[in-house]
Design brief:
Number of domains: 2
Structural class: mainly alpha
Shape: extended
Helix content: 40-55%
Number of strands: 3
Largest sheet: 3 strands, parallel
Length: 162
């Protein structure tokens, strides 16, 4: 971590030297809520250590946290979260492939187009994972057969033994 911080400090120092010692500021859009308030404080503290000031905004930010539960299991949903249509910094060729995948004739053609789009999106660097996706589950001891689901949605009536 120290080596990464030192490298970041060097990068920021070089950028400032090239830009008339201008301060480095990034805007961050986070959803509302006490957890997001704590996250912003933590991020601000960490970024300040490398010479970057964060400003919290509602939209049109340099960095936007996407905190959503996938409504269904689909690679197109995940890739669509970082598409140009969402108003994020994106790869235009990948966007063309995503659009083409919606109107293609066969599932195999759709998967091929999505397979071409994914590495372009990753190489573009418009998405920075802050952490592994996490979903919390609080379950009472009287519930049996609880198992996490990929969508963080549980039909509770099937968990109670009658």
């Amino acid at each position: 971590m120290d080596a990464r911080r030192d490298r970041a400090l060097g990068t920021i120092a070089r950028w400032r030297a090239q830009h008339g010692d201008k301060p480095v500021r990034l805007s961050v859009a986070l959803p509302e809520g006490p957890g997001m308030d704590l996250l912003f404080v933590a991020l601000s503290t960490q970024y300040r250590k490398i010479g970057v000031e964060l400003e919290r905004v509602e939209r049109k930010a340099d960095l936007t946290l996407i905190d959503e539960v996938a409504p269904y299991d689909s690679v197109s949903w995940y890739l669509g979260q970082v598409s140009c249509a969402r108003g994020v910094h994106c790869d235009e060729k990948a966007e063309e492939l995503l659009k083409a995948s919606v109107s293609t004739g066969t599932m195999q053609d759709r998967l091929n187009l999505l397979g071409e789009a994914e590495p372009l999106i990753q190489a573009h660097g418009g998405f920075i994972p802050l952490a592994t996706p996490v979903r919390w589950s609080l379950v009472a001891r009287r519930l049996n057969a609880f198992a996490p689901t990929p969508r963080a949605h549980h039909n509770l009536r099937w968990l109670i033994k009658e």
